[in-house]
Each structure stands twice: as structure tokens, then as C-alpha cells.
Write a structure and sequence with these properties.
The protein has 348 residues and is of the alpha/beta class. The chain has two domains: 61 residues, Orthogonal Bundle (DNA polymerase, domain 1); 277 residues, TIM Barrel (Alpha-Beta Barrel). The chain has eleven helices and twelve strands. It binds iron/sulfur cluster.
Length: 348
């Protein structure tokens, strides 16, 4: 892993590349070439950087530098246009990412970890063994490899795949910065969304950054008691602390926060839950995404009835919340929210 972090040129910001190239006695603009070739032209190895002199390519290689490359193991397509990619990392681990193609909007749902330690009950990834966090280079490479394979320009990123982004805070933020760089993919900060289960320290840290991607927080319940049945992390991070962190985030950034709420039949889909949710969110600037639960093996939850979902939405809308319903997409290939890793639950 250390080799991945230290010598992978895909894992470097432009200023880090400038520091590396300076060691080889070349001008800073060479670093810009390398950065552009890796992130705009998807260069996959140092020898393909033909704008660099042969000597510099040889010196970089001799010093152990390389450009990491995820391998596509499998690609599945749903009739609704969703594509799921299964990748293999350099150390033989698997991660999944999803391409959502909605006319002009090309979104990739990225993974930030291999497995996840948080074990949310409704999420297949939470049932897999946690292996490790991804490097920024590996996070970015999901975008580079998919955009090259699907021959499309990605303009929207959601960090909602496998893993909890705030458990891999530094690499996730580094990936956001590199993806947003005008010499790279140039995907604006406001077109990138970090989705967290609600780790107060991570929310507060993000509030203090100089960049603010969109923030989405998965609540899934209006109180701690119910939330603990769905999101075990609620035992560690009480709702009061999450709400305080969100208030601070609103105040420091003036940004609206998206609340994610997955509706599970008979668990958290009652009118009472909707009213309680509206009450706890009323002091905050939020919009709400209602997500239809996506079943996966190993979990006996069932999706809420669609009538109930509409009623839940009406209650929130009447109380002034901008609320949208995200009905299932990509279910035939297990690419929907909470289904990544569902094909490998036997690893549990
Ligand atoms: S929902 Fe996110 S935080 Fe929860 S187990 Fe799944 S990947 Fe981890």
C-alpha cells in the first residue's frame, strides 16, 4: 500500500507533481503536462507520456514512479441505462462503481473504501469484510477508467459507493480537489457530493475546508432509538451531535445539506416518522431525498409501499422541505443504492 501512496503519479496533486519533477531538475510546466496527460487524456503508463523526454521517463521509472490503473473485471448494464463496473485494484481487491447516464447528466457513484466498517443494515457493502481504504489515485481512477470505457464526459460525482468517505477523509478530499482541477477532469466542486452516514467530526472538518462539495447525510430515522436498528453507527454518533454538526456546517458554509432517508417497510415509513423528521430538521437548511429501499441477500427488510413513500413526501413538502423521491435504478444488476457488493456477500 505504501508503494501505491508514494509512487503513484495518479495519486498526486499538481503541486506534489511539481515537487517530484523538481527533483529531476525539470521546469514546473512539465508537471502540468504529466497532470494533464493522466487526468485529461487518461494516460496509463509513464512511457505513454511521449511529451516528456526519454531520459525523464526512464528516470521516473527507475525511481519507482508509475501510474496506477484499475482493471475492469466485469461490466453489467441495466435496461434503464445504468452500468455497474467491477474493478480489481493492484493488490487484487475488488470495488464497484456505477455510471448513471441521464441525458446531459453523466454521474459516477464512486467507492472510497474496500468494504465498510459501519455495517448499515440496509446496505450490502456493510455486510462485506472491510479490507482497506482507497488512495486518492484509486478513487479518481474509477472516473478516468469509466469515462474512457464509456466514451463520455463525466460531469457529476457522488461519493456514495462502497465505504464511508469520512473514514477516509484525506484521500477523499484529495480526490475531490484533483477531479475539480481545471487541468484535470474539471468537475466543479458543486458537482461533487460527499455522502456520509453522519460522522460529526468529519462534517465539522469539511465545514472548515476552503472547498465545499455538496454534503449528503444518511439519517434514515428521526431519532436515535429507531436509527440504531438501521444504522449501527448511531450507537457511536448520537443524533444530537449530528444535528449540531449540521447546524455548524450550515452556518459556516451557507450551504444547504441533503438528507438521505431510505424508506423501509414497517420500520421507518410511518407518518409519525415523517412528522418527527420534519421537526428535527426544522432549524436547519436541508433538502430531503427519499430513497426506495433496494433489497439484497442477507437482509430481510422490504421496500416501503410506494403510496406510503408519496404520503411521506407530502408531509415533508407541506412543512416546507424540498423533497424528492429516488425510485430504484439499476436493480437488475444490483447497482442501486445499498446494493454494491451484493454479489459477493459470501465473503461475509
Ligand atoms: S451505507 Fe455507506 S456507511 Fe453504511 S455500510 Fe453502506 S457503505 Fe458503509
Amino acid at each position: 500500500m505504501l508503494r501505491l501512496m508514494d509512487k503513484d503519479l495518479k495519486n498526486k496533486t499538481l503541486s506534489e507533481l511539481e515537487q517530484i519533477t523538481a527533483k529531476f531538475g525539470v521546469k514546473p510546466y512539465i508537471a502540468k503536462y504529466i497532470f494533464t496527460f493522466i487526468h485529461q487524456k487518461d494516460a496509463a503508463d509513464i512511457n505513454s507520456l511521449t511529451t516528456l523526454s526519454k531520459d525523464l521517463r526512464a528516470s521516473l521509472t527507475e525511481a519507482g514512479y508509475f501510474i496506477s490503473q484499475l482493471k475492469i473485471v466485469e461490466k453489467l448494464s441495466d435496461p434503464d441505462g445504468t452500468e455497474k463496473y467491477l474493478f480489481q485494484t493492484a493488490d487484487g481487491q475488488n470495488i464497484e462503481s456505477v455510471l448513471l447516464d441521464e441525458r446531459e447528466r453523466k454521474t459516477i457513484c464512486l467507492s472510497t473504501q474496500i468494504g465498510c466498517r459501519l455495517g448499515c443494515k440496509f446496505c450490502a457493502t456493510g455486510y462485506l469484510k472491510f479490507k482497506r481504504s482507497l488512495t486518492a489515485g484509486e478513487i479518481i481512477d474509477q472516473v478516468n477508467t469509466i469515462s474512457k470505457d464509456a466514451k463520455c464526459k463525466i460531469n457529476n460525482i457522488v461519493f456514495m459507493g462502497m465505504g464511508e468517505p469520512f473514514e477516509n477523509y484525506d484521500e477523499t478530499l484529495k480526490a475531490v480537489r484533483i477531479l475539480a482541477h481545471p487541468f484535470g477532469k474539471n468537475i466543479g466542486i458543486r458537482r461533487q457530493t460527499i455522502s456520509t452516514v453522519g460522522i460529526p467530526a468529519g462534517i465539522k472538518k469539511l465545514a472548515d475546508e476552503d472547498i465545499h462539495p455538496r454534503l449528503a447525510v444518511s439519517l434514515h430515522a428521526p431519532d436515535d432509538e429507531l436509527r440504531k436498528q438501521i444504522v449501527p453507527a448511531a450507537n457511536k454518533y448520537p443524533m444530537s451531535e449530528i444535528l449540531n454538526a449540521l447546524k455548524l456546517y450550515n452556518q459556516k458554509t451557507s450551504r444547504r445539506i441533503t438528507i438521505e432517508y431510505c424508506l423501509i417497510d414497517g420500520i421507518n415509513d410511518s407518518s409519525e416518522c415523517a412528522k418527527k423528521l420534519a421537526a428535527i430538521l426544522s432549524p436547519l437548511d436541508t433538502s430531503i431525498n427519499l430513497i426506495e429501499y433496494n433489497p439484497h441477500p442477507g437482509c430481510d427488510f422490504a421496500p416501503a409501499n410506494r403510496e406510503k413513500i408519496r404520503l411521506f413526501k407530502d408531509i415533508l413538502t407541506q412543512r416546507g422541505f424540498e423533497t424528492i423521491i429516488r425510485f430504484r435504478r439499476g436493480t437488475s444488476i444490483k447497482a442501486a443504492c445499498g446494493q454494491l457488493g451484493a454479489d459477493r456477500l459470501k465473503e461475509k
